[in-house]
Amino acid sequence: MGVRDTLRLFWAVLRANPLTLAGFLMVAVLCGLAGIMAIDPWLLVRYGPIQTSSASYAPPSWAHPLGTDNIGLDIYSEVMRALPLDLGIALAIVGASVLIGGLLGLVAGYWDRPGTAGGASSIVILRTTDVFLAFPSLLLALAITISLGRGPWQAVLALMLTWWPYYVRLVRGEVLAVKHLPYIQAARAAGVSEGRIVLRHVVRNILEPIVVYLTMDIGTVLVVFSTIAFVADAIPYPSATPEWGSMLSYYQQILPIASYPWLVFGPGAAIFLTVLAFSLLGDGLRDVLDPRTRRALVRSRSRPLPEVPAEASPARPDDPEAKLSGEVPQPA
Amino acid sequence: MGRSAGDLGIFIGKRLLQLVPVLIGVIFLTFFFTHITVVNPCSIWYPHADETTIRHCEAQFNQPLWTQFWNYFAGLLQGNWGTSQFAQPVYPTIAAALPATLELVFASLFLMIFIGIPLGVIAAQSSGRWADHFVRIFYLSGWATPTYLGAVIAAIFLAPALGLPSHGEYSSPPPFPQYTHMSVLDAMIALNPQFTVDALAHLILPASVLAFINMGIATRMTRSSMLEVLPLDYVKSARMKGLSEFWVMYKHALRNSLITTTTVLGITAGGLLSGTVVVEEVFTWPGIGAYAFNAMGGDGAAPNFDGAIAVVAIFAVGVVVANLIADILYGILDPRVEWR
Asked: How far is A246 from chain B (nearest CA, A)?
């Protein structure tokens, strides 16, 4: 598929469901805002990271859209300043997981003939993944965070260490579905080297489901990250680099939030809207990838969706057969 | 492998055997990660202790990591689950707290099944129309809410608004013995209607928060499998027989799509269990989730390593067992599936 075809398919998917389109627009706006905040924050906010204003405990007003806290920090500025960091953290964790898990899954899925070195390494990878998948990653990440100590990077590292196993399962399942297809065999018969087959023919054709899962996952990771910030008190606040989860955790601890609801509203709404944006987009994209829901979509529309190539939609996470044979990535 | 009771037995046996290496791996990993960087927690654990206690404690942590793990693991095999930072044995505390967590998890599972699945049916029925969109926004909202945020909002803003309690299991200490440590069940065993209602009122909010946050997968999977079933001939013929839409949907169509939805049980187990860590803490529910919260140093408490490892291991067992139950149910519901 060329770039233009991909874009056209993407546009058709967005148009198929208004919620997917809404999710895409929200993601675009969030990324745009994060970009502006990273380049020149003063275009959007009027207060620095730890800069206090004269008003404390001020409810939302024109001057302070989301109110101020006990020492006069402008919640709106703090929330906006946290945007690039929080998006970056989510992207970094998901990116690292895709790299680690994807690589292991590729190895375990492609070189899995029993009795060979590849088969042995495949077994080791899968059994290790099983152990990681058996316990909720939130708990392991928490355990690592308390042992590494407080700080945003410790929490990021802890989540990176625990987040990759889903991708091993996902990528391995996709590779297994693709690797016996005729065009791979044709490439091999034509004398293409194994490394080239993997990179050019396998990886390219499993990208689509992985990108969809990843879109959803960015939101999930943000939720889990902020939970770690809350439970382990992992990130100090107030700080020069505010973070949503730590803001919530801090205000919830120091102030009776029933009297000052705006203190949790600002960062809470920020997390909620960001995750909702990525989830709306990812969920809509998944509908199209799922052969069962796609059929229903196509039927209910006069203008049919362009067909996705058959090999790009192998066992879905909620495919019952895949579930039984254990090919399913399990969400946290 | 086939479908007889013997096959099922072998299937369960095999899966439980597979649990052993997974469990050892989980315990090892948690032990490793909690102990690798901690220099010495003794001075935090015993701020006012005399020198012999501290030296005794330090001697334990100055050993090589392997020796420490072996000591812990050997104790575990003999039934000794270790001690908390206050030198209290871990096992009795957890044994008393586990039923409360199970009660909470089962209550949320109940809500997920009786709200989440019908929502999926409604969404599939009106696919592409406003009801479908509404359901999607609802379940994605649950997905997008961090557990603690949902719990805090429910406890602080919803509880007074709805007149529901948000603290503990009962309003006052129960006058009856707690055999099962499950609040509603104990009150029912004691034939005490007043306390049964009270316990249910205490259970509603934490269970709803947990269910709301984890409901997405159930609704989503029901929706997509219903979309697959609805255009089939047998559904059409049920309609042509003149059955009401309700019976067509919930008796004929849902029955087939439920096969897919049983897998939800396994998939959400992890989310429900780790959700209890925060929900129990916020609602002061006396389960192992709140115990884990404190064991992992929540609210700045000194970490309790043995307790943390025990809770993580129990949760791992929970996830594996939930998946096993889902697979067994799956085979019962679908005669084509063989247990293997």
From this structure: 12
